[in-house]
Design goal:
343 residues, alpha+beta, Metallo-beta-lactamase, Chain A, seven-stranded mixed β-sheet, 8 helices, RibonucZ/Hydroxyglut_hydro, MBL fold metallo-hydrolase, DHPS-like_MBL-fold
């Protein structure tokens, strides 16, 4: 397992010139954890689905004493990302899901060897993206594991939604991660990984008029008191420049706003073309419904080839995206693999 100096190949302080993100020949994004698992989804031009027949478990109610099992779904997100440049491949994890064992269970059922990952990138500190670290570290027997985060990932947060009990979110512990064998790397600025083939955006500037962030009941503990936390400033995304095709953008929740994220990726790389958008877009719930129409309209102007939103995108936004992108939109599901190849 590489240490932190191997994992982050280049630290970037963006000054306006494009960062030296090297084009890749192929990217494969396997969704290890999403809110749903649908064993009846069909393959598409870029996406293969996990159905049944790969994994089984003992069950005495069936002839032969076993039954087939699919994958687990939960309110969380995790992706395995593999990039190839020539004959060289690198694999990393982007987020780890909610529960300690969901991600590793799904990886086992998919036949994915998590020992091959070079490190972990956390999109932000919310527990539905970080909870699977415990199961991963158990699997790896506490071997040294690079984990790249924004410095605000340790922020204590809570929700005070009307009509609901106050809920303090589990807060990630830097000390605990270090004790468990993680080599924690804190970067506010962008970082290049995988021999400069993968860009992590770092902190994303908020520039659009309509992406206003979290509602007032999402709060952070700052300077000894609870305050509205609209920005979730630790939110960051993963970006790859697919040779001859354009940018592939992977989000966790997209708290920065998906258009803010895409625009930032374009500024950082100097590449205008958006080829694919995968991951959570956080457009679910009444607080975000006014954002759906302008988001879909702005994305439509970019004409991506693949749109695979999941996790916190919300059913109304999914419906709008499916309508706007009849050829590009695909539903997300645990076990889906999106394979994109350069031109």
């Amino acid at each position: 397992m590489p240490d932190s100096t191997d994992f982050v190949s280049t630290e970037v302080t963006f000054s306006g010139d494009p960062v030296a993100l090297r084009p890749v020949d192929e990217i494969r994004i396997t969704t290890l954890v999403d809110n749903v698992y649908d064993g009846l989804l069909e393959d598409g031009p870029f996406t293969t689905r996990e159905t049944f027949g790969r994994a089984s478990e003992p069950s005495p109610q069936f002839e032969g004493g076993r039954t087939e099992v699919g994958l687990l779904g939960e309110h969380g997100f995790s992706s395995l990302v593999t990039v190839r440049r020539g004959t060289e491949e690198t694999t990393l994890l982007f987020d780890t899901g909610l529960a300690p064992r969901t991600m590793v269970t799904n990886a086992e059922r998919l036949g994915v060897d998590l020992h091959a990952v070079t490190g972990v990138v956390l999109s932000h500190g919310h527990f539905d993206h970080t909870g699977g670290l415990a199961g991963l570290l158990d699997l790896l027997d506490r071997r040294r594991l690079p984990v790249l985060v924004h410095p605000s990932v340790w922020t204590r947060r809570r929700t005070t939604a009307p009509g609901q009990a106050v809920f303090e979110l589990p807060t990630l512990s830097k000390t605990a991660l270090a004790d468990e064998g993680c080599a924690v790397i804190e970067r506010r600025d962008p970082s290049l990984l995988a021999d400069d083939c993968v860009l992590i955006t770092g902190e994303v500037p908020r520039t659009t008029e309509f992406e206003k962030g979290m509602p007032p009941f999402h709060q952070a503990w700052v300077d000894g008191a609870w305050h509205h936390d609209p920005a979730v400033i630790d939110d960051q995304a993963l970006v790859v420049n697919l040779r001859g095709q354009g940018l592939v953008v992977l989000t966790g929740c997209g708290h920065a706003g998906v258009l803010n994220i895409v625009k930032h990726a374009q500024r950082l790389t100097g590449v205008e073309r958006l080829h694919a958008l995968v991951g959570g877009l956080h457009l679910g719930g009444r607080s975000f419904e006014p954002t759906i129409a302008p988001t879909v309209a702005a994305l439509a102007a970019l004409s991506p080839t693949l749109v695979a939103p999941g996790h916190c995108t919300g059913w109304r936004a999914q419906q709008a995206l499916a309508t706007a992108f009849p050829a590009a939109w695909v539903p997300s599901s645990s076990g889906s693999t999106h394979r994109l190849v350069g031109a």
